[in-house]
Amino acid sequence: MSKDHIQNKIRTLRFFKDEMTQKQLADEVGVTRQTVAAIESGKYSPSLELAFRISSVFKVTLDEVFTYDSSKDKIKKK
Amino acid sequence: MTIQVQKAVFNFVTTILLMGGYLFYVFGIHRDVNLSKVLEIQFWGIFILELTVLMVLAKIILFILFAIFKKVKNRNMDEEDLGFMDERDKLIEMKSDRYSHWITMFGFIASMVPISMGYSVQYMFITILSFGFVSAVMSDVWKIYFYNKGL
What does the pLDDT read at residue B4? Predict the structure, then answer.
């Protein structure tokens, strides 16, 4: 599944934003704390909209928060 | 345990208790339910309608009580809204509902087997009800699974 390929730096970014809590981030992007925890631990890949909202909270670009490891791809390219 | 998992566990337990309670009410307390009555389609029509109304009303009342209990218990805590659903919650609900609908559909097809084999109509209703019950329970089981293991 693609969730295995997506890594994120949310924990690090939270640390550098005055040790922002998961709850604070969740409130800012309009999801539950459990969803933020699931994203951080790689159990859930957020929608593009939520990913953009998270990156805008930290005032960074999307690829500074999320990275995609295409080497794990199993999709056959046409 | 998160609030979403608590809701799923609560739903799981109440579904089993309500179904068990209703079966006991019909076949345990009303012992006048004999074989000839079970063979009637009217009996099964009433059975399903009563069960549906009971389930809907009881679930509404129990969920209100659950919400009140949570509110009182976490009075001083920053508790999350019980009705709030974000994109992950919706995705989990859709996925678990899809799997449970497969069971329901399979149950409906399976219920045609005893009819096609010439068995009485009671077997068709028992099959539909059994699969309906399993699908309702499995919907919550999958929710608990997805919340713990991830999507």
Answer: 85
Looking at beta carbons, which residues of chain B come within 8 Å of A45? 151
- A48 alpha carbon, distance to own chain's centre: 10
According to the per-residue pLDDT averaged within each range, which of A10-14, B31-35, B118-122 is highest?
Answer: A10-14
Q: In a 3-state reduction of DSSP, which class is residue B15?
A: helix
- Nearest chain B CA: its distance from A42 CA (Å): 8
* A41-61 pLDDT, tens digit each: 988 999 999 999 999 999 999
Burial class (CB in 10 A: 0-12, 13-18, 19+), A45: buried
CB contact (8 A) between residue B80 and residue A33: yes
B147 interaction partners in chain A (CB closer than 8 Å): 34
Q: Which residue on chain A is closest to B146 by alpha carbon? A: A43
Whole-angstrom distance, CA of residue A73 vs CA of residue B15: 41
CA distance A58 to A65: 9
When pLDDT is averaged across residues B27-49 and rounded to a whole number, the result is: 78
Contacts of A38 in chain B (CB under 8 A): 88, 150
Say yes or no to pLDDT of B65 above 80: yes
